[in-house]
Amino acid sequence: MPDLAISDAGRLALQGDRQQRLRQAARAFEAQFLQRLLQPLAERADEEEELFGGDGAGDQWRALFVQGLAEHSAGSLGIAALIERTLAARLQRPQ
């Protein structure tokens, strides 16, 4: 999977211990969730205020803004922590 993060906050480590990679993957999942949640809100705000411009470039700026906001906010809802705990417990169980 290519690294499409726009900031270090959203970048996944290819090396490191399993717990660190699990934590980062859980945060990436929460970032994707936040991005899906924030995208319609940003579109609605842009319709009323034209924050990012009214042309096609504005759509790209809005998408980058939402992605960056989601990457930096990941971990704040507690979803990542829940996923990390659940998966860590599953990985420790004998198969």
In brief:
The protein is mainly alpha-helical. The chain is 67% helix and 0% strand. The two termini are 27 Å apart.
Explained architecture:
By secondary structure, the protein is mostly helical. The chain has one domain (17-85). The protein has helices spanning 18-49, 56-73, 79-92. α1 runs antiparallel to α3 (79-92). The two termini are 27 Å apart. The model has no long low-confidence stretch (mean pLDDT 83).
Fold topology:
Layout: H1 18-49, H2 56-73, H3 79-92
Helix pairs in contact: 1-2, 1-3
Task: Describe this protein with a few key phrases.
single chain; 95 residues; mainly alpha; 67% helix; 0% strand; elongated
- Count of distinct structural domains: 1
Radius of gyration: 16 Å
Summarize the biggest pleated sheet: none
How would you classify the quaternary structure? single chain
Topology as a string of helices (H) and strands (E): HHH
Ranges where pLDDT stays below 50 over 5 or more residues in a row are none
Query: Helical percent range?
Result: 55-70%
Q: Count the strands?
A: 0
Shape: elongated
Distance between the termini: 27 Å
Mean pLDDT: 83
Q: Given the helix and strand composition, which structural class is it?
A: mainly alpha
Q: Provide the β-strand percentage band.
A: under 5%
Number of helices: 3
